[in-house]
Amino acid sequence: FCSIMGVKVASFQFNAFQENSFVVWDSERNCVIIDPGCYEKHEEKELFDFIENEGLKPIALLNTHAHIDHILGNAAVKTKYAIPFYLHKDDLNTLQAVASYAQVYGFEKYKISPDPDFYLENDTEYKFGEISFKVFHTPGHAPGHVVFFEEDNEFVINGDVLFNGSFGRVDLPGGDLQTLKKSIFDIMFQLPENTVVFCGHGPKTTIEKEKKDNYIHQF
């Protein structure tokens, strides 16, 4: 995992889509679980064992968006820790639709995600212990996609908006290239250049690198 000042970030690669799930925690061991993609029992065990071995106290479940690969573990996390779940309201339909297509993608044992306890608001700060996330609504890949920017520690959990050298697909329901470009240029590229970008798939990157050579510039 990666330690950034007082806050630490661990990532786990789960499910057939090789999705990155995150645990972010502070010096008091309070943690948030973001986009748990754990589907198989051994994946759930890997996540839960890490939390237990690090002595962490889960206090919130957050989704950047609700495509199947990012929410497969929502039910397991909710059941185990009984913590509040946060999602942007524009992705509620995306979340609820997963049950209708999970089998098509080979996830026959999909446990239906609960609905959110709270809706994330754009340009709003949320504090979880010493972790302070500024939430920005960044549609284009999914209608209710958000990113979680930790300004003090200079990182952003950005789901499937930006990838290292690339960007989220726009051919799924609710996806739109022009909308995603606006999210990238008007929101992501306005963050400080040294911001570390944790992606929903693949390796992390920085805003500076992506402003320079991301494939989005060709569109």
Describe the structure concisely:
The protein is an alpha/beta fold. The chain has helices at 41-53, 68-71, 74-81, 92-101, 177-186, 207-213, and strands at 2-4, 7-14, 19-25, 30-34, 57-62, 85-88, 118-120, 124-128, 131-137, 146-150, 155-157, 162-163, 166-167, 196-198, 205-206.
Order of helices and strands: EEEEHEHHEHEEEEEEEHEEH
**What's the shape?**
globular
**Class of secondary structure makeup:** alpha/beta
Kindly provide the radius of gyration, computed on alpha-carbon positions and rounded to a whole number of angstroms: 16 Å
What gap, in angstroms, lies between the N and C termini? 34 Å
User: Count the strands?
Assistant: 15
Q: Which regions have little confidence, pLDDT < 50, spanning 5+ residues?
A: none
Helix fraction bin? 10-25%
| Strand content range | 25-35%
Whole-number mean pLDDT: 97
Q: Widest sheet: strand order?
A: 1-2-3-4-5-6-7
Total of DSSP H or I helical runs spanning 4+ residues:
6
Structure notes:
The radius of gyration is 16 Å and the shape is globular. The model has no long low-confidence stretch (mean pLDDT 97). With 219 residues, it is α/β, with parallel strands linked by helices. The protein has helices at residues 41-53, 68-71, 74-81, 92-101, 177-186, 207-213, and strands at 2-4, 7-14, 19-25, 30-34, 57-62, 85-88, 118-120, 124-128, 131-137, 146-150, 155-157, 162-163, 166-167, 196-198, 205-206. A 7-stranded mixed β-sheet has the order 1-2-3-4-5-6-7, with helices on one face. It has 6 helices and 15 strands.
